[in-house]
Specification:
The complex is a heterodimer.
Chain A lengths: L1 H39 L5 H6 L6 E7 L6 H8 L7 E8 L5 H8 L2 E4 L12 E7 L7 E6 L5 H11 L4 E5 L4 E2 L3 H11 L4 E10 L4 E3 L2 E4 L6 H23 L10 E5 H6 L10 H15 L5 E12 L5 H21 L10 H36 L3 H30 L5 H34 L15 E2 L3
Parallel strand pairs in A: 1-2, 1-6, 2-5, 8-12, 9-13
Antiparallel strand pairs in A: 3-4, 4-5, 6-11, 7-12, 8-11, 9-10
Helix pairs in contact in A: 1-7, 1-11, 1-12, 7-12, 7-13, 10-11, 10-13, 11-13, 12-13
Chain B lengths: L1 H6 L2 H57 L4 H18 L3 H15 L5 H10 L2 H11 L2 H13 L6 H4 L8 H14 L5 H4 L7 H12 L2 H5 L2 H6 L3 H14 L5 H7 L5 H19 L7 H13 L1
Helix pairs in contact in B: 2-3, 2-4, 6-7, 7-9, 9-11, 11-14, 14-16, 15-16, 16-17
């Protein structure tokens, strides 16, 4: 038994070393990708797109479920995009509150006959609505039955949309007003290759907004939101950029992502049985294109284009993360035939193994580490000083990486205005491993447990507090 | 297994962690904390300095362009600016270029002779040419764009070799700058060795559409050229300017094997029938069906 525990310890040490090495590689790749992006970003000014009648048409698709409190301001925000040719497709997903009434009243909607451009199967559609008021000519509302699936609502939006490029967003997200013009650029550069683009997402808690666009980005006041912001910075500045550089992205966030509609329709749209529908869609498109032997590219932009409200209480936060973890497990399990399968190119040989070994497995490995420590403590003798040294090293390594990601973030955007915000964010970096990390691990393990024991899947409800309107 | 165990021998590992890794990492963390805070503070300071420098440049340009100075007064202003602001801080020249570009792009009545005086006084063409030749890719792109806006005719010999650059972003900007430098001669576009990408066509369309009246007279020549780059450019400029093109030519083009050309021709046709057929949205398939039906029936 003791030998087994010792062997597990060695295995864990090897895993940790590989993980740290990968983190370092990710950091280097990410810096290279960000550097390249800003080196060439000025080659084409967005203003050309904004002024041209030849710009590609884009459909923004936003499902709304019980968003009565904020739906009007959210749509006004989406309408403030600086882009000449776009429409907004709001899918009222059988809301039981006054979402639909709000929409009809505020936007003067009337029921219309509408031709759909694709026929991905969805739940019953009650009707299509457009505004009588020409100011809102870009708005189309789809009213449909709720089958407890965001994917189904997105599919209904895809069917109703008229343009070839679609942007799927969470309706509560606030977009930077040049988001469409920024996301579309890679499609114009490599139209036959790029199938999806995504960008960094930030937390809107405590930031100030005016007329639906961000005025001042502030570090959240709520402690839980502060940790999430930190996690977002690290994730978008390292992981996604590095995977984008290797063209190995498996995820374009459901909060903001632009897709080539043709590819989405080819694979039958979003899968309605999945919680992590964004991850699953990209996986399926990649699989499909590998099978067709078609070259493709998924691009992540290092710009912060979208602000979303993060959960501020532990219960909602854990629910959200349990859902994400379950979605990850579900996706990896469902597409398990892709693992190390050369037929699926870098998706099968790089992206999938990475997600399995270093995204999915990490919480399990950490739990295993804890069990080994307990076994040593009670049965085989624990070298406390050695444990302290290893823990301190791990803590310092991750703190260093997180601090570097904050520095990169500052270099790019000076996201946070004051020195006070910077001191707060650094303080949160130092305490994150003791407070936030255990919460994350717990949520992930709970998500896996729910998935493997087939516990009921829930979306959960998050009470929106809305946005702080700037007085400027 | 034993070999692995030796690598992870506790005493050795503990020694390495305690005496090498932990002190180094601790230094890195403390250093990074101070560095981030210092960067934040110094950046705020720099911002304030930049605002001051910006004001000097703006004041100089306002006096130079908009206060009706005579030649001698302008020369005195230039000399003063050169010998004081620029000598004190050579970075001011970068700000001056940025502002000059901004004025040139946004103020239609900017007197070209005054712009030229500043360009010559600061030897800007040679600065751009040096950057085009020796700068990194970012500097190259910016210098090419500036050369285009400030009509740097001396840049042509430096631009030509870059038309073969492996970097698409450089190539596309060179193409644009060469079109301007050659006084909008379409031979460069017609002879471009590969099909233009959407992003390049958008850039070129904007350039040509600014020539409004003169470009309209060229539409027929472009459409008759059989060159796909030119045909696409013509259709895009026509769409941007919202001008009518010979219906018969468009009807032929909607059958073009290049789908992009076909769809652009259809867009133009739809726009022409929009009023007659009361099509509210030329992008909708219902609108397209109506227009095609109209074509077939007539």
């Amino acid at each position: 038994m003791e030998t087994l525990v010792k062997q597990i310890e060695v295995g864990l040490a090897i895993y940790a070393l590989i993980y740290l090495a990968l983190y370092l590689i990710q950091a280097l790749l990410s810096i290279a990708a960000i550097n390249k992006y800003f080196l060439y970003n000025d080659f084409f000014h967005k203003s050309i797109l904004i002024r041209s009648n030849n710009s590609r048409g884009i459909s923004i698709i936003a499902p709304a479920y019980n968003e009565g409190k904020t739906i009007v301001s959210n749509i006004l925000s989406l309408l403030s995009q600086e882009y000449p040719k776009y429409e907004i497709v709001i899918v009222n997903d059988g809301s039981s509150d006054n979402t639909m009434e709000q929409l009809i009243e505020k936007f003067e909607l009337i029921k219309i006959d509408h031709e759909t451009n694709s026929d991905i199967p969805t739940a019953a559609i009650f009707g299509y609505y457009r505004s009588k008021n020409p100011i809102y000519y870009k708005l189309l509302v789809v009213d449909k039955a709720n089958i407890r699936s965001k994917s189904d609502a997105l599919n209904a939006g895809i069917n109703a949309s008229k343009y070839d490029l679609i942007v799927c967003v969470d309706v509560d997200c606030i977009l930077r007003n040049d988001s469409l013009a920024t996301l579309v650029k890679p499609f114009l550069k490599e139209p036959d290759k790029v199938i999806a683009t995504g960008a960094a997402i930030r937390l809107s808690n405590s930031s100030e907004f005016k007329h639906g666009t961000i005025v001042t980005s502030k570090y959240p006041k709520n402690w839980l939101a502060r940790f999430q912001e930190l996690e977002y910075i690290r994730s978008f500045r390292y992981g996604r950029m590095a995977l984008s550089k290797l063209n190995g992205l498996l995820l374009v966030s459901g909060a903001l992502g632009m897709f080539d509609k043709k590819r989405v329709i080819e694979v039958g749209g979003y899968h309605i049985g999945f919680l992590g529908e964004d991850l699953e869609l990209i996986t399926r498109i990649r699989k499909h294109l590998h099978e067709k032997k078609t070259k493709f590219k998924i691009v992540y932009l290092p710009e912060s284009l979208c602000w979303t409200e993060g959960p501020t209480d532990i219960k909602t936060f854990i629910n959200q993360r349990v859902r994400w973890a379950r979605g990850l497990a579900q996706n990896l399990y469902h597409h398990r035939d892709m693992f190390f399968n050369p037929k699926y190119g870098r998706t099968g040989l790089l992206a999938f193994p990475y997600f399995l070994l270093f995204e999915f497995a990490l919480p399990i490995i950490e739990l295993l580490g804890l069990l080994v420590i307990l076994a040593d403590l009670f049965f085989f003798g624990l070298d406390v000083y050695f444990l302290f040294l290893v823990s301190l090293t791990t803590y310092l390594v991750f703190t260093t990486f997180t601090l570097i990601s904050i520095y990169i973030d500052q270099l790019i955007y000076k996201q946070f205005q004051g020195i006070k915000d910077m001191v707060s964010i650094i303080a949160m970096v130092l305490i994150e491993p003791f407070i936030y990390h255990p919460l994350l691990i717990y949520s992930c393990l709970k998500g896996y447990y729910n998935f493997f024991l087939n516990k009921e899947k829930k979306w959960g409800v998050m009470e929106r507090t809305g946005f702080t309107e700037s007085t400027l | 297994m034993n070999r692995t165990l030796i690598i992870f021998h506790r005493d050795h590992t503990a020694y390495a962690l305690e005496h090498i890794f932990i002190p180094l990492l601790l230094l890195a963390v403390i250093g990074l904390v101070f560095f981030i805070l210092y960067y934040r503070l110094s950046d705020d300071k720099q911002d304030k300095t930049k605002v001051k420098e910006k004001q000097f440049v703006e004041l100089f340009l306002i006096r130079y362009f908009f206060e009706g100075l005579n030649t001698e007064e302008r020369k005195a202003e230039l000399d003063y600016f050169k010998n004081n602001e620029v000598r004190k801080n050579p970075k001011t020249i970068k700000l001056l270029i940025e502002h000059l570009i901004h004025i040139k792009k946004n103020i239609l009545e900017t007197p070209n002779d005054l712009v030229q005086e500043i360009v010559e006084a600061f030897d800007l063409y040679n600065t751009f040419n040096r950057q085009i030749k020796f700068g990194n890719n970012y500097q190259k792109i910016i210098a090419i764009q500036h050369s285009q806006t400030l009509h740097n005719h001396l840049a042509l010999p430096y631009l030509k070799p870059l038309l073969k650059s492996k970097q698409f972003e450089i190539r596309s900007n060179v193409l644009k700058a060469m079109v301007v430098a050659s006084n909008f001669d379409t031979t460069i576009i017609a002879n471009y060795p590969e099909p233009l990408k959407e992003v390049e066509l958008l850039m070129l369309a904007e350039l040509y559409q600014n020539r409004r009246e003169s470009v309209r007279t060229e539409f027929n020549t472009w459409l008759d050229s059989q060159n796909e780059n030119l045909i696409q450019l013509c259709l895009m400029v026509a769409i941007n300017l919202n001008v009518a093109i010979d219906n018969r030519k468009l009807q032929l083009l909607i059958l073009h094997e290049n789908k992009k050309i076909a769809s652009q021709a259809l867009t133009l046709l739809l726009a022409q029938f929009k009023e007659d057929l009361k099509i509210s949205d030329v992008s909708s398939s219902a609108g397209a069906s109506k227009a095609i039906a109209h074509l077939v029936l007539n």
